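Standup notes
- DV: blocked on the single-chain target, sequence here:
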Amino acid sequence: MEKKSVQQEQIHDLLFNKNIDWQEIIYDLINTEQLDPWNIDIVLLTDKYLQKIREMKEADFFISSKVLLAATLLLKIKSDILLNEYIKSIDEILFGKKEDKKILHEKIDFDEEIPELIPRSPIPRLKKVTLKELIESLNKAINTENRRIKREIIKKNVLHETSFLIPKKKFNIKDKIREIHLNLFKYFKNNEKGEKVSFTEFIGKEKEERIFSFLPLLHLESQKKIWLEQENHFEEIYIWLKKNYLKHNPDPFTDLKQELN
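- DV (later): unblocked, structure below
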């Protein structure tokens, strides 16, 4: 009979696509276990919460990540209660204690002996935990953790997408400039009819080599050794020896020189 009831609940949840969230579980446990919402037994609530998750798992219910995260936070609060004599606040357990500002006190010397101060009432061993405080603290902790996870995912995706841009081996930039400049002279010497060469044809298609070579080419252009030409953004770049470019093309700075004169 019980098994049949569980199956009916599963069919109902599948039809209406209802995912039980962590707040519902806590509210249900408060009612069924008749816990005082103004003074919750965290130890009992945590044990019953974990038991509820096990039952849901056995019944093949969908368990969201937030439900599991709430379980870990409840366990953290429970362990703190069991290990310490008292708790000051749930936020302090979940987010750590804020450092108090140190205040320097002036020392005062007394001639007579100071009598021992004895508190009139005993210090409470355990602060009462209300349902409102528990829900708000758990909700804040879950949202904080979700934001942290999202940041980590974005960071990993960025690193993954840009990993090919990071060279895996070291190289000497001066040696690379000399190497490219020498190879360009050799190329045009062996190809006398060639006025220019494309970046892809000269450097190749290997990503790492293209990265290594681009900066040296920019340096050679700034030193007026070569001329780089690109008609439109993201299109092929063509490499000229500067003297060859000026032979076949008008001086690109003619208009600027006339304006300055």
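- Follow-up: The first strand starts at residue 197 and ends at 198.
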